[in-house]
Design goal:
The protein is of the alpha/beta class and 354 residues long. The chain has 3 domains: 53 residues, 434 Repressor (Amino-terminal Domain) (Orthogonal Bundle), CATH 1.10.260.40; 129 residues, Response regulator (Rossmann fold, 3-Layer(aba) Sandwich), CATH 3.40.50; 131 residues, 3-Layer(aba) Sandwich (Rossmann fold), CATH 3.40.50. It is built from 13 helices and 12 strands. The chain has a 6-stranded parallel β-sheet with strand order 2-1-3-4-5-11, with helices on both faces. Strands 7-6-8-9 form a 4-stranded parallel β-sheet.
């Protein structure tokens, strides 16, 4: 009828007040095409521009229109992600980062729990058979020879997380675990600690052995003999940190510092110290590794190694999108990305007691 304004359809972006790609482009000071490239081919956009657009997307809670994607003729990417320890603070942080980036790029992320046993290949096979475009293997699955062999035989890109997998011919994203562990040990040595307890990680994980090697290298460089009784086994869980700390603190004399191979085990060590009435850090220093969410929720907050877990997840999803496009173009490729780490001093370590 003439003279009447047309009402927006119920549930439309205009009616909901939802952000549009034009809103993102305007606020970021770029074209809509650039925003589209950040979402579909982030590797093709300059880092500074990509980071600015990604930040605006998060601020505006922009969600790409699936209808627009379908009209453009492109198919939504589907990535599979296998994890082993759902309660690990590291895995929680990685999953959240991957989910956020997948959402920003309109990638469907399908996660599946997987044990290192006779069922792991079946889980991988079921996921691969669902038509995924790429797969992510997180620790410790990324270090399982049979899973690596099976994943490598798939005709899709594979990304290994937290392991330098150059020898496997698969893509990977990681930090320098050896240098990071050495830096933390050097810090404790600089504070005057000489009896330093070390809680090792899960034996099947390559990072566990690399971190222990970094610990040993720092002691050796400082002329401090490695005392085997000060190295306790763990498996990256809070409970294993409890048990390891009980063993270490029962020694005569006990260590004046404990370096746990991850924050979950360091949190367990803190609990034991509190139960024994030890003042942390005046009587006992405790440090972790990863800088996962648990490191800043303990008392005292943990001095730890910052592993850029969220950035690893973000760049990992972006990298897989690039590799899928190359694979579809008949140009399969693999990439390795080493990200920087940092030592984060907090309140759980101090000068060694007299």
């Amino acid at each position: 009828m003439a003279g009447h304004a047309r009402k927006p359809k119920s549930g439309s972006a205009q009616q909901r007040g939802a952000a549009t790609i034009a809103d993102v482009a305007r606020k970021a000071g770029v074209s809509k095409m650039t925003v589209s490239r950040v979402l579909s081919a982030p590797w093709s956009v300059r880092t500074e521009t990509r980071e600015r657009v990604t930040q605006i997307i998060a601020e505006l809670h922009y969600t790409p229109s699936r209808a627009a994607r379908m009209l453009s003729g492109s198919r939504q990417l589907r990535f599979g992600l296998l994890y082993n320890a759902p309660r690990s603070s590291y895995i929680v942080d990685f999953l959240m980062g991957a989910l956020d980036q997948a959402s920003a790029m309109d990638v469907q992320l399908i996660s599946r729990g997987c044990l290192l046993d006779d069922t792991d290949l079946a889980v991988l096979g079921t996921l691969a058979g669902s038509g995924i475009d790429a797969i992510i293997l997180t620790p410790p699955l990324c270090d399982s020879p049979r899973l690596l062999a099976a994943a490598g035989a798939l005709d899709i890109p594979v990304l290994l997380v937290s392991t330098d997998a150059a020898a496997t011919g698969l893509s990977s994203i990681f930090i320098d675990e050896h240098e990071a562990a050495r830096a933390m040990t050097d810090r404790l040595l600089s504070l005057g600690h000489r009896r330093i307890g070390f809680i090792a990680g899960e034996p099947v994980l390559a990072a566990s052995h690399i971190r222990e090697a970094g610990f040993r290298a720092a002691l050796d460089a400082a002329g401090v003999p490695v005392d085997a009784t000060l190295i306790a086994p763990g498996n990256f869980t809070y409970r294993s940190g409890l048990l390891a700390a009980e063993t270490l603190l029962a020694l005569d004399p006990p260590p004046t510092a404990i370096f746990a191979s991850n924050d979950d085990m360091a949190a367990g060590a803190l609990t034991v110290a509190h139960r024994l009435g030890l003042d942390v850090p005046a009587q006992l220093s405790i440090c972790g590794f990863d800088d996962s969410w648990i490191a800043s929720t303990t008392y005292p907050e943990l001095t730890t190694i910052h592993q850029p877990i969220t950035e690893m997840a973000t760049q990992g999803v972006q990298l897989l999108a690039e590799l899928v496009q190359l694979h579809r173009a008949g140009k399969p490729a693999n990439r390795t990305i080493q990200l920087p780490h940092a030592l984060v001093p907090r309140r759980s370590d101090a000068i060694a007691p007299n």
